[in-house]
Write a structure and sequence with these properties.
The chain has 389 residues and is an all-alpha fold. It is 77% helix and 0% strand.
Length: 389
């Protein structure tokens, strides 16, 4: 009965430790899920900000394209105006040539008319001499005036030089054409300067837009890579959580099997050693060995990180190095040999006492021998406690 009570107490302690372990594992898994959700939320916020920046940059790029389109349309308009000015200039030059030819023709006409005036002057001198001769004949001034006036039937015509007025008009037209030509030249120079400035600004804007586009392209690629990396990490975390859930379920099933076996076993006794002459004696009472305290928090943390168990029930606080695994194997072999061949007090082998096993240890031994056999029982024990050989 004492053994059953100790086994029940050991099972209760293990149940408490396992429940605590399960609660800690669930809490850690929930905490990790929350951290992953926060990280995903942060990445989503970063992605949103990057998307907003990308939209803003695209709007700026669209505005720059609009400005470039407007500048190109303005350049086309200026080119058309320049073509018109060049056409007007050519037309003005043609008009100037025509006017110069007309002026030359008028100069010729003027010289001819001046020659005719010299002839008229000779005629007037002859007429004056005639009238002088008349005045010399008749000294009476009234008769002189009477003879000098033309008859009443004669109509006097006022002759105006048509060539002179045409020459003045052509000169005025020539001056106006030269003034228009100077204005067009000034406009042409101004438009050429504006065209050069606009082309320079257009080139600078195109370079800035290309740099901005390249930078945003690299930023978008980095954001996409970051999102893919986070999705892969999320998938890995989900797989780890599934593995942990399966591991916890296996632990729960194992605990239930242990409880069923303990409840089904009414008494746990050891065979008496009949070969010893001192078997009738009662063995000295030996205190049951204390169950080693296991740091299950560190065990589950190591399991979550995918590493080997650092705190096993056999190695206490040492890690699962080859040395600790070897010592654990030796401990288990010594324990099995002692449990299989106990020696009573007073036997030939001096200095050794009977090694009593706790009910929990006997139950684990029976289960390991029944499942795996005597040769691999210690390996099964090590796999249960978490030490990998």
């Amino acid at each position: 009965m004492d053994r059953i009570s100790t086994a029940a107490s050991a099972i209760r302690t293990t149940q408490k430790e396992l429940t605590k372990l399960l609660s800690d594992a669930r809490f850690d898994s929930q905490f990790e899920v929350k951290e992953e959700e926060e990280e995903l939320f942060a990445t989503n916020s970063i992605q949103r900000t990057e998307d907003a920046k990308f939209v803003e940059d695209t709007n700026k790029f669209i505005q720059v394209n609009r400005k470039l389109f407007l500048s190109e349309s303005r350049v086309k308009e200026l080119e058309k105006e320049i073509e018109n000015t060049v056409a007007q200039r050519n037309e003005a030059l043609m008009q100037a040539r025509r006017s110069s030819n007309e002026a030359e023709r008028l100069r010729r006409i003027l010289t001819e008319s001046m020659r005719e005036t010299e002839k008229n002057k000779l005629k007037m001198m002859q007429a004056q001499s005639f009238f002088d001769s008349l005045g010399g004949v008749s000294n009476d001034p009234e008769n002189l005036i009477k003879f000098s006036e033309p008859p009443q039937s004669f109509k006097a015509y006022k002759v105006e030089s048509t060539h002179g007025t045409e020459l003045e008009t052509t000169k005025a037209r020539l001056k106006q054409a030269e003034a228009d030509l100077n204005k067009l030249r000034n406009k042409f120079d101004y438009f050429t300067e504006q065209n050069a400035k606009i082309k320079k600004e257009q080139g600078e804007r195109v370079k800035e837009a290309e740099k901005l586009l390249a930078g945003k392209h690299t930023q978008v690629l980095g954001a996409v890579r970051r999102v893919h990396y986070l999705l892969e990490q999320n998938e890995k975390y989900q797989k780890d959580l599934k593995k942990k859930d399966t591991y916890i379920n296996k632990l729960e099933l194992k605990l239930l099997d242990l409880n069923r076996q303990v409840n089904s076993a009414p008494t746990i006794t050891r065979k008496q050693e009949t070969e010893s002459p001192y078997s009738s004696r009662s063995p000295e009472p030996v205190a049951p060995p204390e169950v080693p305290s296991v740091n299950w928090d560190s065990v589950f943390k190591q399991c979550k990180l995918g590493r080997s168990v650092s705190n096993s029930p056999l190695t206490h606080t040492q890690g699962s190095t080859p040395k600790t695994v070897h010592t654990a194997n030796e401990k288990y072999r010594d324990w099995v040999q002692k449990s299989k061949s106990p020696v009573c007090v007073g036997s030939k082998e001096e200095g050794r006492k009977v090694k009593k096993l706790t009910p929990f240890e006997e139950l684990i031994e029976q289960e390991a021998v029944a499942v795996c056999g005597e040769e691999t029982a210690h390996e099964e024990w090590l796999s249960k406690v978490g030490v990998t050989s």
